[in-house]
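We modelled the chain as a single entity of 127 amino acids. Its sequence is:
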Amino acid sequence: QVRLVESGGGLMEAGGSLRLSCAASGLAFSNYAMGWFRQAPGKEREFVGYISWNGGGTDYADSVKGRFTISRDNTKNTLYLQMNTLKPEDTAVYYCAAKGVPLLGSQRRSHWAYDYWGQGTQVTVSS
């Protein structure tokens, strides 16, 4: 039914850029706030970025702020994550997630608050 499919991951040298996409289906996309999370080996899933239903509000983890940009195209039911100036510590599996609005500000960075998840796409940054 509801499906989120990430794409765009791969291998990139430090300092390079990648653009991740998350195609959503089976849900009214514009009724959902969206988030990006990542999980590195041996570590818990961590928040990367958030975007409100209409793209008017965004939030980023301090570790990626200024380098990553989250966006969405509600006409295409697609979420994006533009990743610039990549660092080796960005290496992780990246997941997109959807949360039916309303989503409290205190929940934006909490993976447990999201309703649906994609299967992830691997991003590897070499030094």
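As a brief sanity check on the tokenised model: The mean pLDDT is 97. The radius of gyration is 13 Å.
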